[in-house]
């Protein structure tokens, strides 16, 4: 994977970074933890400018969030509420739960998008609730850009400083992202079990 990413950037330059960062948001097996450090290493070699690398990486990351945002927006809260009321019983999911989650995102969505863009494993997924809660596009783009810019700067800077050892960034961040994703899954399972117990107590 590392050789393929590096070869693509060598042949397409900044356009390669842009395309890879767009695709990374839709296909997580191509991780930003490999793309941006590799680009930072290219800058350290003098093949690219580190500031342009960060700017292009940020732009690609923000553009890559838009498909899931629009899918969430097209699906919408009301459709999801109606689906949950009709079919969500087997998931112990009610329309009321969807509305509560949407209310939470309305209150904390800016922080979720800002900091979530720097959390591997859930970076891309946050675009769906942002779209479903109809977060205004300018606000979504602004906070996505800030979070993505900080993330791209950290990764590219690490690759720049590590030089030929840039792939070590992915070796450390990769396992961390799996841990974070695991925590999210465990939290979802615990919520599911809690809802089951509550429904059992009411029955």
Automatic annotation (TrEMBL):
InterPro entries named in the record: DedA_domain (IPR051311), VTT_dom (IPR032816)
UniProt keyword terms in alphabetical order: Cell membrane, Membrane, Transmembrane, Transmembrane helix
Record-annotated VTT domain positions: 30-160
Membrane topology of the entry: Multi-pass membrane protein
Stored Pfam families: VTT_dom
One cellular component term from this protein's GO annotations in UniProt: plasma membrane
Subcellular location(s) per record: Cell membrane
Membrane-crossing residue ranges in chain numbering: 12-30, 50-71, 140-163, 175-193
Highest rank taxon of the organism: Bacteria
Listed name of the protein: DedA family protein
The species this protein was found in: Deinococcus aerius
